[in-house]
Design a protein that fits this description.
Elements: E1 3-8, H1 15-30, E2 37-42, H2 48-55, E3 61-64, H3 81-86, E4 91-94, H4 97-102, H5 107-119, E5 123-128, H6 132-137, H7 140-152, H8 157-160, E6 164-167, H9 182-196, E7 202-206, H10 214-218, E8 225-228, H11 235-259
Parallel strand pairs: 1-2, 1-8, 2-3, 3-4, 4-5, 5-6, 6-7, 7-8
Helix pairs in contact: 1-2, 5-7, 7-9
Bound molecules: 2-phosphoglycolic acid.
Length: about 260
């Protein structure tokens, strides 16, 4: 089973800082076996082509933080899926809560972006997550399932199989966020797995992930990986998370081999 460990740098890093990180990552990976761990890095648009160039030929997938649903045209300030693809992106992050909150991203635009991303053969990384009041009302699972359905309903199986879903409770994201306790995530992940388990490329968790809580999160049923912000903005933090995930995944694989179970 693939374990996805990725980071979005959000609106951080100069070109020099981005290239430095990517070069360091390339070096770190050359001496490591990550087993079934699939790394991905989502730099700001300004650094996308450079980071993709530095990481070319490694196992790291590079992604864009956003892309428009049209291929080209009079959309000042936007970049399209063909453009980010041309710059080296293999993956497009769609519908992060910061984009939904500050940039008018809706379920409708998210859907169009999912379709555009798939149309051009890239991987949509669909972000979903509920606000605090929904969490407090105990209806998180219903809320995020509805978000996911609106983004993905009607996709044929072969396309759905390319999609990554990142469940990122809004109350758990960023400096003002409160890290989710694994027990708070069991029901939402069970709900997502009930509809999408085995049908999408993976179900990821994001929101205040760090080295201290990562193994508890990766141990949760139906969690296929982590989508990390702050804790992976320094290269060392990201590499430590990759090592931890590779160690856990290796242990799981050894156990299932001994038990004769396919993962
Ligand atoms: P954080 O960001 O890890 O800094 O909370 C997560 C995200 O926004 O994906």
């Amino acid at each position: 089973m693939t374990v996805w460990i990725g980071t979005s740098w959000k609106m951080n890093k100069t070109l020099a800082e981005a290239v430095d990180y990517a070069g360091g990552l390339r070096q770190a990976l050359s001496g490591r076996s990550l087993g079934s761990v699939q790394p991905f890095i989502i730099p700001p648009a300004t650094a996308l082509a450079s980071v993709a160039g530095v990481l070319d030929g490694t196992s790291v997938l590079v992604g864009a933080q956003n892309a428009h649903w049209e291929d080209a045209g009079a959309w000042t300030g936007e970049v399209s899926v063909p453009q980010v693809s041309d710059a080296g992106a293999r993956l497009v992050e769609i519908g992060h809560s910061e984009r939904r909150e500050h940039f008018g991203e809706t379920d409708e635009t998210v859907r169009k972006k999912v379709d555009a991303t798939l149309r051009h053969g890239l991987i949509p990384l669909l972000c979903i997550g509920e606000p605090d009041e929904v969490h407090n009302a105990g209806t998180s699972s219903e809320y995020i399932l509805e978000q996911a359905r609106r983004a993905l309903d009607g996709l044929e199986d072969a396309l759905l199989a390319k999609v990554l879903i990142a469940y990122e409770p809004i109350w758990a994201i960023g400096a003002g966020g409160r890290p989710a306790h694994p027990d708070e995530l069991r029901a939402p992940f069970a709900a997502l797995a009930g509809t999408f388990g085995g049908r999408v490329a993976g179900l990821l968790y994001g929101g205040s992930v760090d080295l201290a809580n990562a193994s508890g999160l990766l141990d949760l049923p139906h969690v296929d990986g982590l989508f990390v912000g702050r804790a992976a903005w320094a290269l060392e933090g990201y590499v430590q998370l990759l090592d931890l995930a590779a160690g856990l995944a290796g242990g799981d694989e050894r156990r299932s081999e001994m038990e004769g179970v396919d993962q």
